Amino acid sequence: MSRARMLNDTLIQHIHSSFAEGSGSGHGHHSVIAGQQPHGEMIDTDTCRAGAVKDYIKMMLEAEQLKFLVFAHHLTMLQACTEAVIEAKAGYIRIDGSVPSSERIQLVHKFQNDPETRVAILSILAAGQ
């Protein structure tokens, strides 16, 4: 449990530092360009957040053999989560709006019953159906 807490704290610190580098708005609205680096280049805060989440997923996969769920709303974040799992060479399922309703229950069963399928990447809207 302490390893999971450490990973969670690391994610929070990473996201917090991403906001500190950007505009610091921290509101639920996503802007592509939120701030500037000292040399004038623009910061993409969505990329910073996605990078933090990818790092967190990879740490979770390295930490233990636990299964876990990842919920996201935006397709860019779903894609970043998928990339992280693929890069870590872990088994996963993904349920988003492009997955027909008839296939979703099969994917859920795969996640629940296949020990190699460790991550479920879920769109908040699609998973609620």
TrEMBL record:
<dbReference type="GO" id="GO:0031297">
    <property type="term" value="P:replication fork processing"/>
</dbReference>
<keyword id="KW-0378">Hydrolase</keyword>
<dbReference type="InterPro" id="IPR027417">
    <property type="entry name" value="P-loop_NTPase"/>
</dbReference>
<dbReference type="GO" id="GO:0043596">
    <property type="term" value="C:nuclear replication fork"/>
</dbReference>
<dbReference type="GO" id="GO:0005524">
    <property type="term" value="F:ATP binding"/>
</dbReference>
<dbReference type="InterPro" id="IPR049730">
    <property type="entry name" value="SNF2/RAD54-like_C"/>
</dbReference>
<keyword id="KW-0067">ATP-binding</keyword>
<keyword id="KW-0347">Helicase</keyword>
<dbReference type="GO" id="GO:0004520">
    <property type="term" value="F:DNA endonuclease activity"/>
</dbReference>
<keyword id="KW-0255">Endonuclease</keyword>
<keyword id="KW-0547">Nucleotide-binding</keyword>
<keyword id="KW-0540">Nuclease</keyword>
<dbReference type="GO" id="GO:0004386">
    <property type="term" value="F:helicase activity"/>
</dbReference>
<protein>
    <submittedName>
        <fullName>DNA annealing helicase and endonuclease ZRANB3 isoform X1</fullName>
    </submittedName>
</protein>
<dbReference type="GO" id="GO:0016787">
    <property type="term" value="F:hydrolase activity"/>
</dbReference>
<dbReference type="GO" id="GO:0006281">
    <property type="term" value="P:DNA repair"/>
</dbReference>
